[in-house]
Structures are given as C-alpha cells and as structure tokens.
C-alpha cells in the first residue's frame, strides 16, 4: 500500500500548522486527527506533543504515521514517485 515513502519527506510537520476555529491544531488539512486543541493545551505543548513527535519520527524513518494515512493525503501521489506541487522535498 503506501506505508513507506523512500527518498521523499513531507515537510509539513517541521514547517506548517493549521489552526481550526474550534482550536484544533493540525500539521495539514489532510490529517485524520488533530494534534491537540488550543483550548486545552498551549501551542508549545501541542507542537512538541508525543503525537507530533511520533509523526515526525515516522517521516524520518521513511514511513507514514497512521494519522497521515487518510485518503485525501497527497503523500499517496508521492508514493507513486511524483512530487506534488513542491510540498515534499527529496532526501539527499
């Protein structure tokens, strides 16, 4: 399927954040589950949370976190060898 992503990396978890009007914090709009909610925790706690770290560690290992395996995630296209709109950088 698309559980590994050799030679490609999603840079969103190190660069981007999406905050919904209800306070949910996500790395991108394709995530299946928020990292946390600003009404419950500080941004720093959410950014450095175990879930955020797990997502980053999976990507560094060349894998996708279960949170990122949603049907709408463009990483599926990357898994087919196509770099989508410059959103992903090649690991050298």
TrEMBL record:
> From the record, what ranges are coiled-coil?
none
Looking up InterPro entries in the UniProt record yields: 4Fe4S-binding_SPASM_dom, Aldolase_TIM, rSAM_sf
Indicate the transmembrane segments per the record.
none
4Fe4S-binding SPASM domain residues are 10-73
Kindly provide the name given to this protein in its UniProt entry.
4Fe4S-binding SPASM domain-containing protein
What organism is recorded for this protein? marine sediment metagenome
